[in-house]
Amino acid sequence: MKYKAICFDVDGTLYSPQQLRQFMINIGFSHPVWASRYNRMRQLFRQLQGSFEEMNMEGTSFEDREALVYMKTAAGRKLRMVEARQKLDKNYYSHMEEVYATLEKQPETAQTLEKIKKAGLTVCVLSDWPLYNKLELMGVDSLVDCRITPYDMGYLKPDVHCFTYMLDRLALKNTEVLFVGDSYDKDITGASAAGIDSVLIGRHRDQKEQFPLAAEVFDTWKDFDAWIGSQLEA
């Protein structure tokens, strides 16, 4: 196999998109106002992150970047940065951590990662969200060699900085890494911009022509497991 590492998105990839949607629904119903404000902030963050250098945000932490972007929304316009950070932590991230505490073990995921590790490849995760103790709850913590979140790199997918940062951490070339995700717009387009091969999980294989940047498309994790097993054997 030409790859030396396989990097995975976490939410919706290492566990099911259905469970991810349920988590988001739970947060939305429990805290509808803050869920809406947070979503608007994240959308604006993705729109602005290509201009962070011009906005003098280079060198600032991800928490400060989120706070500064939140201060550009209607809800955060009158806040100071420290107040914006406190509100995001108290009114959204604390609830997110509570919801994710219900995440269950993922034996199929663990089996696939074990297979990859036994073949001598590095296993990496690259997430747009805090990891909390998700990997432990899924039963895959000991199988993951490299963990990357926005708090490390300061950007959200699909920005190419996320993927070049990943390559730097792994000390590998873009041709030596395979990225696996469930979002075509974030995971696949971002990896492609960095010259990284990628596969998409959770889409019908017979619709592959709709996802031209993906090297492979799989309906389910089980389908991906069978494919990666054959690639490792080859």
Domain module count: 2
- Helicity, as a percent range: 40-55%
CATH superfamily of the largest domain: HAD superfamily/HAD-like
Question: Alpha-carbon distance between the termini?
Answer: 7 Å
Keywords:
Rossmann fold, alpha/beta
Give a verbal description of the structure:
The protein is α/β, with parallel strands linked by helices and 234 residues long. 49% of the residues lie in helices and 11% in strands. It folds into two domains: 5-16 and 104-233, Rossmann fold (3-Layer(aba) Sandwich), CATH 3.40.50; 20-100, no CATH class. It is built from ten helices and six strands.
Can you lay out the helices and strands and say which pair or pack?
Elements: E1 5-8, H1 17-30, H2 32-48, H3 62-70, H4 81-100, H5 107-118, E2 122-126, H6 134-138, E3 146-148, H7 150-153, H8 160-170, E4 177-181, H9 184-193, E5 197-201, E6 216-218, H10 221-233
Parallel strand pairs: 1-2, 1-4, 2-3, 4-5, 5-6
Helix pairs in contact: 1-2, 2-3, 3-4, 5-10
